[in-house]
Structure formats: structure tokens, C-alpha cells
Design a protein that fits this description.
Elements (H helix, E strand, L loop, with lengths): L21 H30 L19 H9 L3 E5 L2 H10 L3 E5 L8 H8 L4 E5 L3 H7 L4 E5 L12 H6 L7 E4 L7 E6 L4 E8 L4 E5 L15 H9 L4 E5 L14 H4 L4 H20 L16 H14 L3 H19 L8 H12 L3 H10 L5 H22 L10
Parallel strand pairs: 1-9, 2-3, 2-9, 3-8
Antiparallel strand pairs: 4-5, 5-7, 6-7, 7-8
């Protein structure tokens, strides 16, 4: 501790530093160890829950109970005798369609994975195809005459068309995107109007195939399936046949252009684990980088001249602007010498030294304390002035404690 910050009992000689023991280090590190273990457990539990499919899941995923999933609709379809099978690649959807007698395909490509040729192949898999939330590529490939019509507002709109599933549903919940149909497109039928030439559902029926475009696929989600006539529309569109292929494309449908990257081969839990390890490493570095107590003074194996040591320390103090640290070093040495001059032991307290020196030199204890402890230099000139006052105090104490030669009287 710096000498100027301590006013109570202080040993004159330098305090002896002791090396930090392993037990003491363990006690000091106990809090950080507990926090590190707790953070690790939280990260592991979070990673396991995230890997297990948790609350999120993909939109309109058949087995997802999340608000954006479609598990409620799929379960009701199965209860009504419809066989629902899922597919995440086009070859798998084609295999299921070839094995079924009268299939219906539900298609939702949220990631835009399929190319134009793949979209055309998907539309030819089954006699009935329902496309939810078609994107620009899907519209241009499957029905070029259909465009986007903005977002609908207001109250639920009625079917006002001849599509059987829409007539049975009667209404849909308001809001969501719409599709536009030109007036001269005889093969296209728009249902649930939401403005001029804008509809929530568009159907294109030919001799052997029916393609239904649902502008807002969230109508079939767990969160909105029970609103207005959404459920009736979904059950009649998707339950028209005995088998339903629930096809949600994935990255596996994208044609490979080379060897898989390291990121594609890495499991999903690796990234959060690496981030956690980096944070733990940084915390350990900060923890271990702290000083474990004062430095221990050791004798140098060589002899160094006092003047060289003094000049070296002075340059370091001057470079770091550490006036107070330099003054403390001078004060510690001065207190030790003053204690010896006034006849006190090395274990005497600082207050005892101040009182004894003040008595010897006929000064007030406050003045002596200011020189030895309280005064703080604000500039280099004040530091020099305080060092001169220390030297003058030592000289005055030496004169007061030195006996006069025989036959000589103090003037």
C-alpha cells in the first residue's frame, strides 16, 4: 500500500510478502469456477433443446407444434382417413407419388430451393397440387399470368367462385398477401377477392390436373387454422384424395456444385460450443492475468551500483508520470532513517516516529506528517520541493540527536 494513503499504525520496515498458496488461490477463484460451470451447463442444455427441434421448427412443418407449424392440420387429416407422408427432396416426393393411387401434393418452398425445371417436375407429380405462398419464380414457372396483388385488409371475404373447396369454406381470415388474375385468363379462377383482380386463392384446372395457389400459406398454420373458414378450405383441398404428400424442399434439392464445405459437414451444436469455449478462455485469461498479491523482493545475483538503480527507477517514474510512487520510495527510506536517529525500533509505528521527530526538531506533528505522509505533489517541481523538505527534515533530526563535542555549547 502506498504510504500516503495510510494514517493508522504502519510498520517502518517494508512488509514481507508471502507467496499465494494453492488453497488461497482456490478460495479466490471459487466464484469464477462456479460461474464457468453454470454457463457451461446452460449452454449444453440450450444446445440440446435447440437440436431437439424445440419450439421453433420450420414454417408449415408437418410434425411441428409451434405456432408456425402445421401439425394440427395434419393430425385432423389423418383422423379423417387421409394418409399423410412427408418428403424433403424431389426424388422422395416422386417416389411417394408413383407409389400412391390418387395422391395430392402440398408444396411449400420457403427457402426457394427448387429451380425452374424442378418446379415443373413437381407440378406434374400428382393430379392435385396445392402451392402455399408461391414466390416469384414459382409463379413465373407454373402460372406466368398470375402476379402479386399486395396485402389484403378489412373483414373476411367470401369465396364468390365455383371452386368446391372454397365454396365449402365460405370465408377466410383477413390479411396476408394476394394474387392477381387477368380478366382474359379463362383457365384461372380467383376466389376470396380482396380488391380489384386480387384474390387470396387462384386455381387452374385442366383435363387431368388441378393446380391451386394459396397466396398466404400461414392460413394453414397452427396459429391461424381455426380462424374463419381456414380449416374447411384446408381439409377440402388437401383431403380430396386418400393420400397426401407433404413436400417441403430442403438444401438437398439444390444441385451439388462440388465437395461439401466444412460448414455443411459440421453439426449445428459445434458453433455455439466453440463460442462458449472462446468466452471461457477469455474469462480464464482475465482471471489468471490478475496479480495474486504484492511482488516478492528477491536479491539480484549481481551487484548493481546504487546510482544506476536510482537513475533507472527515476526514468521509469518520470516516463509513467508516477510522482507519488517516487515520493513514496523516498518517504519509506526517510522514515526508516528517522526512526533509527530518534532511537526507535524498526517495528515502531509511523505515528510514534512522527511524534518523536516533531519533538526533536521542535515542529508540530501536523507539519512532520505532511512531509512524511499527507502532502501530494501535483507537478515535478512540487515533487522536488517535497524531496528537499524530506532531506532537510532528516538533517534537522540528525542535528538534534547528535551530541555536542566536549567543551562546546549550543548557541
Amino acid at each position: 500500500m502506498s504510504l500516503h494513503t495510510r494514517t493508522d499504525s504502519l510498520p517502518v520496515e517494508n512488509a514481507v510478502s508471502s507467496t499465494l498458496t494453492l488453497r488461497a488461490a482456490g478460495r479466490r477463484a471459487r466464484y469464477w469456477l462456479i460461474m464457468g460451470v453454470g454457463a457451461l451447463l446452460v449452454a449444453v442444455v440450450g444446445t440440446v433443446l435447440a437440436a431437439g427441434g424445440g419450439v421453433g421448427g420450420k414454417p408449415l412443418e408437418a410434425d411441428s407444434a409451434a405456432p408456425a407449424g402445421a401439425r394440427a392440420l395434419v393430425e385432423v387429416l389423418r383422423q379423417q382417413g387421409v394418409t399423410v407422408t412427408t418428403a424433403d427432396t424431389l426424388p422422395e416426393a416422386r417416389r411417394l407419388a408413383d407409389a400412391a393411387a390418387d395422391p395430392t401434393v402440398f408444396f411449400f418452398d420457403d427457402g426457394g430451393f427448387l429451380s425452374d425445371d424442378q418446379l415443373s417436375a413437381m407440378s406434374a407429380l400428382a393430379p392435385r397440387t396445392v402451392v402455399a405462398s408461391p414466390d416469384f419464380r414459382s409463379l413465373q414457372t407454373l402460372t406466368p399470368a398470375v402476379g402479386f396483388g399486395g396485402v389484403s385488409q378489412g373483414t373476411p371475404s367470401r369465396a364468390t367462385c365455383t371452386v368446391a373447396a372454397a365454396v365449402k369454406a365460405d370465408t377466410l381470415s383477413p390479411g396476408g398477401p394476394t394474387l392477381t388474375v387477368p380478366t382474359d385468363a379463362a383457365e384461372l379462377t380467383g376466389c376470396f377477392p380482396a380488391g380489384e383482380k386480387a384474390f387470396a386463392l387462384v386455381e387452374r384446372a385442366t383435363a387431368d390436373r388441378t393446380l391451386t395457389l394459396l397466396a398466404d400459406g400461414t392460413l394453414f398454420s397452427n396459429e391461424r387454422i381455426d380462424k374463419a373458414g381456414n380449416a374447411a378450405l384446408a381439409l377440402n383441398l388437401l383431403g380430396a384424395g386418400e393420400e397426401l404428400i407433404w413436400y417441403l424442399p430442403t438444401i438437398a434439392d439444390v444441385p451439388g456444385t462440388g465437395s461439401p464445405s466444412l460448414g455443411e459437414l459440421t453439426p449445428g451444436w459445434v458453433t455455439p460450443t466453440l463460442i462458449l469455449l472462446v468466452l471461457v478462455t477469455l474469462a480464464a485469461a482475465v482471471w489468471r492475468g490478475r496479480r495474486f498479491g504484492p511482488l516478492v523482493a528477491e536479491n539480484l545475483p549481481v551487484t548493481v551500483r546504487a546510482s544506476e538503480t536510482m537513475e533507472g527507477r527515476a526514468r521509469l517514474y518520470a516516463r509513467s508520470n508516477a510522482r507519488l510512487r517516487a515520493l513514496d520510495a523516498l518517504r519509506v527510506g526517510a522514515v526508516q532513517r528517522l526512526a533509527s536517529q530518534v532511537g526507535l525500533s524498526r517495528l515502531a509505528s509511523l505515528d510514534d516516529v512522527i511524534v518523536m521527530v516533531a519533538t526533536m526538531v521542535s515542529r508540530s506533528p501536523e507539519d512532520v506528517r505532511a512531509v512524511l505522509v499527507d502532502a501530494v505533489p501535483a507537478s515535478d517541481s512540487e515533487l522536488v520541493a517535497l524531496s528537499d523538505r524530506l532531506q532537510e527534515l532528516e538533517r534537522a533530526t540528525a542535528r538534534a540527536t547528535t551530541p555536542l563535542p566536549p567543551g562546546r555549547m549550543d548557541s
